[in-house]
Amino acid sequence: MPVSEATFEKTAAVYAKCFKELPVAKDLPRLAKYITICNQGGLPLSYLETKPINLDTFSIEQSADSEFLGFIQVRRVLLTLALALETTEKCLELETLFEAEVNNKVFLTPEYLSKFLDLHFGGNDGKVVKILKCINQAIIASPLIELKVAMGMDNTTKDVSGTWRINVAVNSSSVVWIYHRKREICIHKRFELEWQLRVVLEQSMNCLSSVHFQVVDFRISASIAPKKLLELKSVIKPYCSDEVWNELNVKPTILVVPEPPQEPIEEPPTRNLLPGES
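Given the sequence above, the corresponding C-alpha cells read:
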C-alpha cells in the first residue's frame, strides 16, 4: 500500500541526495550477497563471464577470505546491473577494470568504492548508481520509522539478523522496482513481523515514482494477553496486507520462540562414607 505523503516526501528527499551523502558504498559490501536481480517476469539475471577470473595470485586461505568473497559479490551485483542497463561494450570495459582490482585489499572500503563508482559507473548520474541509492539503510528509514512510531514504545522491535533480502526488477524500458524485505521481533517477544518496502523509479531514474510499504507476515506469541492483542491489531491494521490481516483475525500464526539453552546442573562432589555414617 502507498506510504503517507509525508513519508513519501522524506524517502524522495533521501533519493534526491548525491550518492556520496548516502551510505551506498558503506552498505553495498554487506548487502551484496542478499541482492537478487531479475527481469520484469521474475526470471533471475546473472552476468555471464567472458573469461574466468584469474585467481592465480591467491592462496586457498585468501580465496576463502570474507573480504575476497565480498569483492566477488559486489562485482556480481555491479556487473549484472550494468548488463541490464548498459551496453555490452561497457560491461567488457568494467570486467577489465574489476580484474585489476582483484588483489586490492581496500576495494571494499567506503572511500575507495565510492571513488570507483564515481569514476567507472557515472557517479550520481549513472543508472547503476541510481539503483544503488535505493539499496542502503537510509532509503528504508522513513517508512520503518513510521511503522515503529505507530506501534509505540511498548511494542518496540529490533531487526532479526540476516533476514534482509533485496530484489531488483528491471524491464526492457529501464523501469526499475526495488523490493526490500526484513523481519523484526518485539523486544518483549510478543510478536514477530516481516515488512516489505517497494520503491519504483520513473523511467529517467531521476526521481521516485512510488513508494509502497506493508507488513507481509505477522506472528504472535501464544502467551500474549487478549487486551494487548486487540491494541496491537488496531495499530498494525493500516500496514497489513489483506492476506495478513485476514489471517490475524481468523487463525493467527503462532510465534515459536526458542527456549534459551539450559545451564548444565552440576552434581555435588561425592566422597566415600566414613565409618558410622549412613
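Strands lie at 35-39, 157-159, 165-170, 176-186, 191-201, 208-221, 253-255. Try to locate this feature in the C-alpha cell string yourself.
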